[in-house]
Specification:
The chain is mainly alpha-helical. Helices cover 69% and strands 0% of the residues. It has helices at residues 5-23, 54-79, 84-107, 110-114, 121-138, 147-167, 183-201, 206-222, 227-234, 250-273, 281-303, 309-324, 331-353, 367-390, 398-404, 407-425, 427-433, 438-461.
């Protein structure tokens, strides 16, 4: 089975916009350019402030893409002859590697090394030198490499990383701590473990998968009302790594896994039946524009708190999408049709949940947040499927595809490569000094993100992938 480029593009879009949201100028941009609960100018966290911005959407897009990858990766391994035990072993190994990644990258971030002082060139150099160490640990060896040398370099990188953690001390005199970790990667670690296991043991039984998710929903909503349930909810042998509360993101990962099941079925049917076409190009472009318009309106409507008109428009749009994708002829069109049935369901469910828990919020995340972002993720995935597989615009989206195939490099590329180089050469200070207006402050972030995208694309073209 070939790679699903639409899924790579979705993952690439998610990781690059995630990076962009972290490098744009603070304080000076409009509220919709930041997390809804962290408005400018002081960015003080307000958990009572509802809303949904594009920044709030990027993490769900990545979670959805992760969920969609489970059926593709594990079905492929099962066909190749792997047993359930071998798959579970791989899931555990991946979990350990992701957890280490979450901890290590926080201990080699220049601002964490220097805390509470501003980083100097020595701190930036350490952050920069950490990049080849992480590279050697996670890169997938190429076939033409000498296996013995590859193993030696990997062991050496592990040794350097562990020694660094053992002797670590930041500007506050604090040493190594598991609690100093990247929370986004920790959440992804939990999803990689529990999401993958849940899919594996409910493979072919969607009702059971949704049933388990419903039981978790009941526990999430009721645990505070029962001492026993609350004990279960808060019990964790390693609170830095696992909390039952982290599993709330299964409400996005599981919808992603359903999409992955549909993509897998499509790929199998395509190999048997070939691929024709019935929808005209004008209809395909209409579908793309329609899907993107739904995303845009949901962001504007919920951020602007149009609480009456927004759910009405989204619900009507959900049904309009069903009409727009009707009468599919080939397997790809049938896939789009089936995907939007689920997308419409998640959107409608989220729209009815929106008034609950004080309106849609990312932090602390609400039920509306999970379901609405799942529906919007389906819309984005459909757009990429049409653009790449129907309209054949692969070259236009090469950067997204390459970054989606190498998201780990993209995730730390700014902090441990681009930023240190800019800081040590004085270019960072120059950039900041000439980008003080809102537009230029945003443009500075775009410049760094584009630079990162091309850097990751270079590694991808060279077949240098980081894998867990």
């Amino acid at each position: 089975m070939k790679r699903v480029l639409a899924l790579d593009a979705l993952r690439g879009f998610a990781i690059l916009t995630m990076i962009l949201s972290g490098v744009i100028a603070y304080n000076i941009l409009p509220a919709w350019m930041y997390h809804a609960q962290l408005p400018p100018p002081d960015h003080t966290f307000n958990p009572n402030l509802p809303g949904l911005t594009w920044v709030d959407l990027v993490f769900p897009l990545f979670l959805f893409a992760m969920g969609a990858s489970f059926p593709l990766a594990m079905n492929r391994r099962l066909i190749q002859g792997d047993s359930y035990f071998q798959l579970i072993k791989k899931i555990v190994e991946r979990t350990i590697l992701l957890a280490f990644f979450a901890v290590f990258i926080k201990h080699v971030h220049a601002y964490n090394i220097a805390a509470p002082n501003s980083p100097n060139n020595w701190h930036w150099l350490i952050a920069l030198l950490a990049f080849p160490v992480i590279f050697a640990i996670y890169v997938r060896p190429k076939k033409e490499w000498n296996p013995k040398i590859s193993r030696i370099l990997k062991y050496l990188a592990w040794f350097i990383a562990l020694v660094w953690l053992f002797f670590f001390e930041n500007g506050k005199g604090e040493g190594f701590s598991f609690n100093r970790n990247d929370i986004i990667i920790i959440v992804l670690t939990n999803m990689a473990f529990f999401g993958a296991l849940l899919w594996l043991f409910t493979r072919g039984n969607l009702l059971l998968r949704l049933g388990i998710l419903t039981i978790y929903l009941a526990l999430r909503l009721s645990h505070a009302e029962n001492p026993l349930f609350d004990t279960v909810w808060n019990c964790s042998p390693f609170s830095w790594l696992y909390r039952l509360d982290f599993l709330k993101y299964l409400f996005i990962v599981i919808p992603g896994s359903i999409a992955g099941d549909l993509i897998w079925s499509y790929s199998s049917a395509k190999e048997q039946n070939g691929n024709g076409s019935s929808w005209s190009n004008s209809r395909l472009w209409t579908q793309v524009i329609f899907m993107l318009a739904i995303i845009l309106f949901a962001l504007i409507g919920y951020q602007s708190r149009w609480v009456n008109i927004t759910p009405v428009v989204l619900i009507l749009s959900a049904f309009a999408g069903l009409w727009l994708t009707q009468k599919p002829a080939d397997e790809l069109e049938k896939l789009v049709h089936k995907l939007w049935h689920w997308g419409a369901f998640w959107l409608i469910l989220g729209a009815f949940f929106e008034p609950f828990e004080g309106g849609i919020k990312k932090d602390s995340s609400t039920m509306a947040y999970y379901f609405i972002t799942s529906g919007l993720s389906v819309a984005m995935l459909i757009s990429f499927i049409i653009l790449l597989d129907k309209l054949r615009l692969e070259r236009v989206f090469t950067l997204l595809i390459h970054n989606g195939q190498n998201p780990m490099i993209a995730y730390i590329g700014v902090a441990n490569l681009i930023w240190p180089v800019l800081a040590m050469t004085g270019l960072e200070a120059l950039l900041v000094s000439v980008t003080q207006t809102p537009f230029l402050g945003f443009l500075r972030g775009v410049l760094k993100t584009v630079l990162l995208a091309y850097m990751v694309s270079f590694f991808t073209k060279k077949k240098l992938f980081w894998k867990t």
